[in-house]
Specification:
Elements: E1 6-10, H1 15-31, E2 34-42, H2 54-73, E3 79-86, H3 89-99, E4 104-108, H4 123-131, E5 135-139, H5 143-147
Parallel strand pairs: 1-2, 1-4, 2-3, 4-5
Helix pairs in contact: 1-2, 3-4
Organism: Tepidiforma thermophila (strain KCTC 52669 / CGMCC 1.13589 / G233)
Protein name: Nucleotide-binding universal stress UspA family protein
InterPro entries: Rossmann-like_a/b/a_fold (IPR014729), UspA (IPR006016)
Length: 154
């Protein structure tokens, strides 16, 4: 608990990823910790990994800026940002966590898909829970909000 200094928050357009930024920021602030905000642009296997994706890059900068504002709202001023391109988000997040010696990954979970799997966490969260070298905190909106069909958009 006392060793929580470096927090990695993967961010996207989902509102819950901004909630993850608020949670990480609130914990990091009194510790004078660092928030690492990461947006992963997933590149399809039919394209070269280093392809320039203009639209996705612009959107990524918007996502990062929104996350930076959420961190400021939480009172966290020590913020670093990154945008990376990868085939899959999980391994990219893991690499970032290892590179920066992250203590905690705080991941917002999008709403579940379908009534048959209400507690599914998705492939990225599952990958991180299996392979992360640090703690992984999962943030999900209350089930009552999700079950009402609440939209998780911006």
């Amino acid at each position: 608990m006392d060793s929580w200094q470096r927090f990695l928050v993967p961010v996207s357009l989902d509102r819950v990823s901004l909630e993850a930024v608020h949670v990480a920021g609130a914990v990091a602030k009194p510790r004078r910790g660092t928030l690492h905000l990461l947006h992963v642009i997933e590149v399809g296997r039919s394209l070269p990994l280093n392809i320039e994706l203009e639209h996705e890059s612009r959107r990524a900068q918007q996502v990062i800026e929104r996350a930076r504002l959420a961190a400021a709202d939480a009172g966290c001023s020590n913020v670093r940002t990154a945008v990376v391109q990868a085939r899959e988000a999980g391994p990219a997040i893991l690499e970032e966590a290892r590179t920066h010696h992250i203590d905690v990954i705080v991941l917002g979970l999008p709403p579940f898909q379908g009534e048959d799997r209400p507690f599914a966490i998705g492939p990225t969260a599952e990958f991180l829970l299996r392979h992360a070298p640090c703690e992984v905190w999962l943030i999900r909106r209350p089930m009552r909000d999700i079950s009402r069909g609440g939209h998780e958009g911006p």
